[in-house]
Design brief:
By secondary structure, the protein is an all-alpha fold. The protein folds into two domains: about 40 residues; about 100 residues. The chain is built from six helices and no strands.
């Protein structure tokens, strides 16, 4: 099979094979008309950005991997979230107790201030012990399920502890397991 070689001038452009649409026809095919001025363009851009942020927020709440922050991505992090969320932690009680203790420190009686200091010490010690127990469980389960992980165990411990000291209702991504569920 021989191909015919066409010699054309440098400015030659081959036809596209169909007629060019008229402007009115092209505008009818658009989903929405272009903005008429700068203010309308900015308004549309803000609405589009708001819709995208709302979609991303809902996706992050649901735990959709596409919308998670980099600190929350990965199967190891999901396991750590489930470990922390499946148990009661001391962290929220620590913050509630610290709030109450702020008022007790204002009482001028020495006995009340001594008791407040002791309670503060016990709460801090409870958070440290709870953090140690969580870290042990995280290490055991991550090594068991992901033996070839590239994640730093220290970062996983820190992630677990930070999640454990936050209030359960405020955790993001939202909890997937109930307290007492097996992981």
């Amino acid at each position: 099979m021989e191909q015919e070689i066409v010699h054309a001038s440098r400015g030659y452009t081959p036809a596209k094979g169909r007629a060019t649409r008229k402007r009115t026809e092209a505008q009818r095919r658009r989903s929405e008309p272009p903005p008429t001025n700068r203010r309308e363009a900015l308004k549309r851009a803000r609405e589009k950005a708001r819709a995208e942020r709302s979609e991303a927020y809902e996706g992050m709440k649901a735990g959709d991997e596409r919308y998670l922050l980099p600190r929350d991505k990965g199967p190891e992090r999901a396991l750590v979230r489930d470990i922390v969320d499946s148990r009661r932690t001391v962290g929220p009680y620590f913050f509630a107790g610290a709030f109450v203790l702020l008022f007790l420190f204002q009482v001028p009686r020495a006995e009340v201030q001594l008791a407040a200091n002791l309670i503060w010490l016990l709460l801090a010690l409870a958070v440290i012990v709870d953090s140690f127990l969580i870290s042990r469980k995280v290490k055991k389960m991550v090594m068991e399920r992901f033996p070839k992980t590239t994640q730093s165990m220290r970062s996983l411990y820190f992630y677990a502890i930070m999640r454990a000291i936050s209030f359960r209702k405020l955790r993001m991504p939202k909890t997937r397991v109930n307290i007492g569920d097996k992981i």
